[in-house]
Amino acid sequence: MDKSEIINLKSELPLMEHFYTICGEGFHQGKAAYFIRLAGCDVGCVWCDVKDSWDATKYPLVDVNEISDTVSKSGAPICVITGGEPFMHDLSALIEALHNQNIKVHIETSGAYQISGNPDWICVSPKKFKPPIESVLLKAHELKVVIFNKTDFEWAEEYSVKVSSTCLLFLQPEWSKAEQVTPWIIDYVKNNPQWRISLQVHKYMNIP
User: Fold this and answer.
1) What is the rounded distance in angstroms from the CA atom of residue 109 to the CA atom of residue 158?
2) CA pair distance 170, 144, nearest whole angstrom
3) pTM check: above 0.85
4) How many angstroms separate the CA atoms of 10 and 13, rounded?
5) Which of 46, 128, 143, 174 could pair covalently with 148 via S-S, beta carbons 3.0-4.6 A apart?
6) CB burial class (10 A; 0-12, 13-18, 19+) of residue 170?
């Protein structure tokens, strides 16, 4: 089975890791959620902190019903599907299985691939290495832009006009440069209050 066949499977997905924790970023920060990290990504962010997730062939294929049962047993009200780039896979079956367990589904995506299934919340975090699809941006509930350099603010504004008027706007410091970048973001949000600050509070709390 080659990599392209793995990427297109619907009933089984390459599962890198999964855990019950607290949402650490964006609008849902502080809420209990079960995280499903799927393997497979070709976006290639140089500062990615989960580069081990890029190669889908390194991880076992797990049935979507097994995944949803595990999430349900945890008691988590929310399942966050992340990656890698989760929408490299068809997530329709997994999202349906989770909905059948009365679990809300949130997705963290770069927006570089079309949306599959019917997630309850879509967070698009665009990357320069593979730009998001404009139709995906219009479906985003949340736009979360990682700030690495001062030029990233202008880049963030370019995408802020491509999302819907109801989409929430967040700026998040890249973790390795947080001490330097966070003061920039504070000043920017004070001058541009349509934006909010997202911090990776799970890293401050030292939890997954």
Assistant:
1) 18
2) 5
3) yes
4) 7
5) 174
6) buried
Q: For 49-61, how does the pLDDT look when each residue is reduced to its tens digit (9 = 90+)? A: 666 777 888 999 9
Please, what are the domains in the chain?
3-204 (3.20.20.70)
Residue 53, CA distances (Å) to 6, 33, 43, 44, 69 in order: 14, 20, 11, 11, 23
Averaged pLDDT score across all residues of the chain: 91
For tokens 């975090």, name the residue. 125
Q: What is the CA radius of gyration of the chain?
A: 17
Closest listed residue to residue 13, CA positions, set 84, 105, 111: 84
Round to whole Å and give the CA distance between 135 and 113: 10
Residue with tokens 């989760």: 86
The two structure tokens encoding residue 47: 């500062």
pLDDT in tens, 128-146: 888 999 999 999 999 999 9
